[in-house]
Amino acid sequence: MANFMPPAELANAFIGISKAKANNNAMKLFMLGILAGVFIGFAAHLATTVATGWTIGGTAALFGLKKFFIGAVFSVGLMLVIIPGSELWTGNNLMFIGLLNKDISLGKLLRNWGLVFFGNLVGSIFLAWIISSMSGLTGGNVGGTAINIAYGKVASTVDGGAPHNIMYFFRAIGCNWLVCLAVMMAIAAKDIGGKVLAIFFPIMAFVTSGFEHAIANMYFIPAGIFAKVFPGAIKASGKSAEALASLNWGTFFTNNLITVTLGNFVGGAIFVGAIYWWIYVKGKKVA
Question: Which residue in 95, 69, 82, 92 sits closest to 40, CA to CA?
Fold first, then answer.
């Protein structure tokens, strides 16, 4: 017997998964969303810590290797989401399969997405506040890294002047394309070792590639905002007062979260959910 589900069986399994998620209790969905936000936040803080200190003689070094290790440790987040169980909005984009197959209504889909997205936001910001404001872990070099990561995500231009929101929209497509494939592969695996490996490689790939994940950014950007109160973190970041002023709650939403959320929807719901529905599920009604 195979220790994983083949693609057709896997795609059809998401009909039942979509129904269960669509009909779950609202408070349970919200609480599970908070948990997922916290779990992704733990991974984001771990990634921030691993990203700190990669210099040789004061010059940034080993860029590709650094990105690989950041991606490797960040995969812990989705492992915590999938294996113990919680609700992550980006993964729930696969519920689009149930909508296309007319097994769940648009209203129930949006109810799930709204509750889970807001829960993810609350959980991520809550953990960012605990770690960046209350734990003392971001008062120095790690705080400087947190500020630099957050600032890079809200700057108005990237890569030599390219419009930030356009670039981040496409980076977000690539991200949730890989995240949803990781979710599908983890569901397909029938043992915990298989689930861990199924999650590790796509998540490592999206982070190492520099793609954008809305829920991760719900931690990364608030963590940088909270870290701005520490002189040691400001000094370690090397950012000017003008740059620090542009890192705020307004730019968190307008320069990143809205655009990245839309790109994640396209990458997950359309490029994974809709395509796999069309190939394996369309015209084959599942009870």
Answer: 82
The interaxial angle of helices 63-74 and 26-50, nearest 10 deg, is 150
What would the mean pLDDT of 58-62 be, rounded to a whole number?
70
pLDDT tens per residue across span 79-127? 999 999 999 999 999 999 999 999 999 999 999 999 999 999 999 999 9
Q: Show me where the domains of the chain are located.
A: 7-281
Q: Which helix (H) or strand (E) holds 16?
A: helix 7-22
Give the domain 7-281 fold: Glycerol uptake facilitator protein (1.20.1080)
- pLDDT tens-digit map of 222-246: 999 999 999 999 999 999 988 899 9
What is the b/e burial string over 182-204, where b = at least 16 CB atoms within 10 angstroms of the residue's CB?
A: bbbbbbbbeeeeebbebbbebbb
DSSP type of residue 239: -
**CA angle in degrees (0–180, nearest 5) for 2-76-4:** 5
Mean pLDDT of the chain: 93
CA distance 103 to 18: 8
* Local structure of residue 135 (DSSP, 8 states): S
> How many Cα neighbours within 13 Å face the side chain of 109?
20
On whether the CB atoms of residues 136 and 226 are closer than 8 A, the answer is: no
pLDDT band, residue 163 (cuts 50/70/90): low
Q: Which residues pair with 60 in a beta bridge?
A: 55
- Strands (DSSP E) contained in the chain are 55-56, 59-60, 157-158, 162-163
Ramachandran sector of residue 70 (left: φ over 0; alpha: ψ -120 to 50; beta: rest): alpha
CA-based radius of gyration for the chain: 19
